[in-house]
Amino acid sequence: MSTIKFTPPVVKRDEEVRREEKVPDQDELEGKQIATETVKGNTDAPPPPDLNGLEGGTGSEPVKEVVENKVYTYVEQMPVFPGGNDALLAAIQKNTKYPPLALRNQVEGKVFITFVVGPDGAVSGVTVQKGIGSGCDEAAVAAVKTLPRFTPGKQNGRAVSVSFTVPVTFAIK
Fold this sequence. Notes:
Low-confidence stretches: none
Largest sheet: 5 strands, mixed
Number of strands: 5
CATH architecture of the domain at 71-170: 2-Layer Sandwich
Distance between the termini: 70 Å
Membrane topology: Single-pass membrane protein
Main location: membrane
CATH class of the domain at 71-170: Alpha Beta
Radius of gyration: 36 Å
Oligomer: single chain
Subcellular location: Cell inner membrane
Family: Belongs to the TonB family.
Organism: Hymenobacter cavernae
Number of helices: 4
């Protein structure tokens, strides 16, 4: 429960007190003329632009949306691989062929691959973000390029390109 504090009155001289105008009652305003003269507007305003020669719209077409063709890193609705993220990693691992050079040299580790899922769900722009060499980088890129189409990501209700980064693990069994 809130409490209301008492504010003490301030004593001032008559000269220091501002007189507040009293708002007239409805009865006082009845029958009175509101304005006695026409007030002129701003005459310093520039003249309106010349619109001759411009085409007018028909009024039946909707306003066209400005579409940016940029690659997003995160969107309202992210792209979905058929089966989810676990299925995505499993599909990459299944299609990854361990390079003979890496097997001979006992090379193990993770290769981070960046790719773009386009508005049509297709995988493109496959690049190595962080590699381990010995042919593993190329094998990981080849595996990611074989992925099927994703359900595309959406931003503001429209399909857009989204960047993805996935780890590809190379381990000798």
